[in-house]
Amino acid sequence: MNQPLIKARDLHKYYPVKSGFLQADKSLQALSGASFDLYAGQTLAVVGESGCGKSTLARLLTLIENPTAGQLTLDGIDVSMAADSATKKQLRQTVQMVFQDPFGSLNPRQKIGDILQEPLIINTNMTAEQRKQEVLTMMARVGLQDEHFHRYPHMFSGGQRQRIAIARALILKPKIVVLDEPVSALDVSIQAQVLNLLIELQQEMGLAYVFISHDLSVVQHIADQVLVMYLGKPVEQGASEAVFSNPQHPYTQALLSATPQANTERKRQRIKLIGELPSPLNPPTGCTFHPRCQHATAQCKTITPEMEPRGDVSVACLLVK
Amino acid sequence: MALLDICNLSVEFATAHGALKAVDGVDLKLDEGEIVAIVGESGSGKSVAMLALMGLLPWTAKVTADRMLFDGQDLLTMSAKQRRKIIGKDISMIFQEPMTSLNPCFSVGYQISEVLAQHFGGSRRSHKARTIELLQQVGIPAAETRLKAYPHQLSGGMCQRVMIAMMIACQPKLLIADEPTTALDVTIQAQILELLVELQQANGMALVLITHDMAVVAETADRVVVQYAGQQVEQRAVKDLFENPRHPYTQALLRALPEHSQGELLNAIPGVVPGQLDRPVGCLFNPRCEHVQEHCRQTPPTRNEDILCHYPLPLAGQKP
Amino acid sequence: MTTTTATPSPAATTSQSVRQQQWREFWFYFSASKTAVAGLVFLIGVILVALFADFISPHLPAEQYREFAETPPAWMEGGQMRFFLGTDYAGRDMLSRIIHGARLSLLAGCIVVLLAASIGIFLGLVAGFKGGWVETIIMRVMDTIMAVPGLLMALVLVALLGPGLLNAMVAIAITYMPSFVRLARASTINEMNRDYVTASRVAGAGPLRLMFIRILPNCMAPLIVQGTLSFSTAILDTAALGFLGMGAQAPLPEWGTLIAENRDLMLSAPWTVTFPGIAILLAVLAINLMGDGLRDALDPKLKRS
């Protein structure tokens, strides 16, 4: 029974974009070609800058949107085959999500107890008493007190709201949790509390995490596997230690060197990335990273590199041998 | 003489639940050409203190200070008109959200030359030349063609560069940067921080960097002010502070960083920053402090060697 | 350890004190505007007068004291304390008629707003939530209604339905609907992009649950303000229709009708039209002032912190 909980094969998502009167509609390649396996108890970190397709991937995994192409299997069920509502319901309970902004993700007009009960009301046939018991147990587990049941979200700090959001995600006992920048809106001291909670819950419940983040120091701490993306395309993928200790793709290298570290000695040579992120509507030809890459050659402008295994990791770069 | 000299600055807001003390007795001295970072979590009053200096707080705020001198002039007794002459010319400020800090209805060239016209007068032609020069200085490629660009046509990083160009247009003596890179991507953040330091060195400006990111502080600043719940808890040279933090809060904050963790779990600080209604008696940090003693729960500490603690941690190599 | 919990403000432990706290906060922002409080006080006064009209008014509104027709107000020459604001052409006491008119005017305002708001909010919610052709149809119909001047539209509708207070209210409600639809649609679209709606979706919530239980309560603040401000214009428009003879019919002491029936006396007995006019003016002013204060208190963007 060592089957991956998530099996993603060459996932693509295009959005049509109206480009103007009498012009052909363009398509925005939000995600092109993400493949990975994720097992129970493991954490996959998806890393990249804005517009790299992290959030699109999250929307596909949480079934909010369907992939344009590619195959997604969650807990052994092929998502595109799940037509009947019973299977859909089952899939819904398998994947849950925690959002970045703890202030926007909780309905300001609902009490904590009602927020946490909602998934149970929709998906189970529990009695009111059972539901309340379930919610109180979960609240205790994430470090909230019983009396918080009747309070409104605005009375809580960011860290506590994120605990509530985590409780809501876990109340249906999912196997996979998609964490979309779960700590980036929190203060440093609270960040550590929430990360610790996530780590403990993962060990306890054997959860698989898809951890979306731009903060490499957090990713390095929590991830087992890392998927680095640039403009909707994966550029490097592999075990966390391998990627961090020996980054292969020039973009991964640049990203690592740009991340500041709390070390006053490290006045090191930064790899300077020239220029801005290109528009995903009009991506560069060949390797999408070539206009900003310091090693780019003539062939990078024409040939699109594919993900290929290089030692411990997979890299999409023509120059990495 | 120090460029900026603030002594015992406090700011109070009137709210629905009574007075809220956002800033409580902050001292800050700043020399020309110095980079000082103010670090703290949300609600630590780090932005409010600087907004108070700029006179940008709403009327519900009550600002008091023993002394508030900029370049020898007293900002407290100054009329609003005199203050406006200094603000924007000698003291400038850039904000977290570059997109919303620029007016979406005007081109960036117009917005920069408006600042020039406001403070220097002069002809349109000379403004245009100066604007192009400024845009080049902040590293915007093809500056002439960007003059007519509107903010929505530029990326976040570019907008922040335009903001910086606008703010250094009058060659200020002091630039306050309020979380200038928080909304930007990592690679762009590195570029902007580098640009700020470059400009600071080239123009001999003093730079106040407000941030919550200890790593940014470590790589940029000369001196750090750590704030907690509106109070200034420690003020030291960057290197000393990171090697040998003396306030328990600073120490805990540094230990909580993922790169300083040992083993699976992080060294989290328990509890939360006290809110308006649940301020503890004694030292404000005492409920979360691992070195807390009975005295800390009773009496608020006074500042000693720029550390607000009854029992500061020992200097390295010293017995307590 | 991560299982530490902090105690939020001790003042708020039960849901009841949460309510109280919300009210207190609301009142803090609302009472910051003196004019809004003044408007509220006056409006409460008008409502009390309307409720207890039977006890307060010195005479019956329809009772005719023929011998005292066109008596001027008490402080003018020839006035009497019995008829404090004078009498009209048929000798009916103006004060009593205005007091009873408050009832009709407030009722008309209420019904118009309730009708327009409930249908308008429903349509706006559906339009914002569904999008596509549903939205296009609803919005184009609303645009068509808005393309015709409000009072003219109401006149046409009353002409079709026949004159009368009830028909006038329905007609005015229809002309007010588009603003509610637009507002509700805009807030719905805004709320749809919030994470808590997505979270509800991930949990498997259906469209009805999302629309009415999740989204609607969060759109209420601007709608309440719009409702208050429409309330005053509804009173004005009912009065206008009454004045034109298309609204409340003659013996009913509706404020607009009062002015209409005494139109011919405008020069000889000006008090017969002045006082109903002042009543309309003050009521509308009070509601508008209160509405402004309400907007300041409910709109988070205008809040001072």
Question: Could you please describe the fold and organization of this structure?
Answer:
The complex is a heterotrimer of chains A (321), B (320) and C (305). With 321 residues, chain A is of the alpha/beta class. Chain A has one domain: Rossmann fold (3-Layer(aba) Sandwich). The two termini of chain A are 36 Å apart. The mean pLDDT of chain A is 86. Chain B has a 6-stranded mixed β-sheet with strand order 7-8-9-3-10-11, with helices on both faces. Chain B is an alpha/beta fold. In chain B, helix 4 crosses helix 5, helix 5 packs across helix 7 and helix 7 packs parallel to helix 8. Chain B is globular and about 70 Å long. The mean pLDDT of chain B is 86. Chain B has 2 domains: 170 residues, P-loop containing nucleotide triphosphate hydrolases (Rossmann fold), CATH 3.40.50.300; 78 residues, no CATH class. With 305 residues, chain C is mostly helical. Chain C is elongated. The two termini of chain C are 34 Å apart. The chains are: A alpha/beta (321), B alpha/beta (320), C mainly alpha (305).
Distance between the termini of chain B: 35 Å
The name of the CATH architecture of the largest domain in chain B is 3-Layer(aba) Sandwich
- Helix- and strand-based class of chain A? alpha/beta
Query: How many whole angstroms does the radius of gyration of chain B measure?
Result: 21 Å
Total discrete domains of chain B:
2
- The first-level CATH class of the largest domain in chain B is given as Alpha Beta
Distance from N terminus to C terminus of chain A (CA atoms, Å) equals 36 Å
Percent of residues in helices of chain B comes to 25-40%
Name the strands of the widest sheet of chain B in spatial order. 7-8-9-3-10-11
How large is the share of residues in beta strands of chain B? Answer: 15-25%
What assembly state would you assign to the polypeptide chains in this entry?
A: heterotrimer
Name the largest protein-protein interface in this structure: A-B, 42 and 46 residues
| Total count of strands of chain A | 12
Keywords:
heterotrimer; A: 321 residues; alpha/beta; Rossmann fold; 8-stranded mixed sheet; 4-stranded antiparallel sheet; 9 helices; 30% helix; globular; B: 320 residues; 5-stranded antiparallel sheet; 12 helices; 13 strands
Note the topology.
The complex is a heterotrimer of chains A (321), B (320) and C (305).
Chain A: E1 6-17, E2 26-38, E3 43-47, H1 54-61, E4 69-74, E5 77-78, H2 85-94, E6 95-98, H3 112-123, H4 128-141, H5 158-170, E7 176-180, H6 188-205, E8 208-213, H7 216-222, E9 225-230, E10 233-239, H8 240-245, H9 250-258, E11 308-310, E12 313-315
Parallel strand pairs in A: 3-8, 3-9, 6-7, 7-8
Antiparallel strand pairs in A: 1-2, 1-4, 4-5, 9-10, 10-12, 11-12
Helix pairs in contact in A: 3-4, 4-5, 5-6
Chain B: E1 4-15, E2 18-30, E3 35-39, H1 46-54, E4 61-64, E5 67-70, E6 73-74, H2 80-86, E7 91-94, H3 98-101, H4 108-120, H5 124-137, H6 143-146, H7 156-167, E8 174-178, H8 186-203, E9 206-211, H9 214-220, E10 223-228, E11 231-237, H10 238-243, H11 248-255, H12 294-298, E12 303-304, E13 307-308
Parallel strand pairs in B: 3-9, 3-10, 7-8, 8-9
Antiparallel strand pairs in B: 1-2, 1-4, 1-5, 5-6, 10-11, 12-13
Helix pairs in contact in B: 4-5, 5-7, 7-8
Chain C: H1 15-31, H2 34-51, H3 53-56, H4 94-130, H5 132-147, H6 150-161, H7 165-192, H8 195-202, H9 207-243, H10 255-261, H11 271-298
Helix pairs in contact in C: 1-11, 2-4, 2-11, 4-5, 4-7, 4-9, 4-11, 5-7, 6-7, 7-9, 9-10, 9-11, 10-11
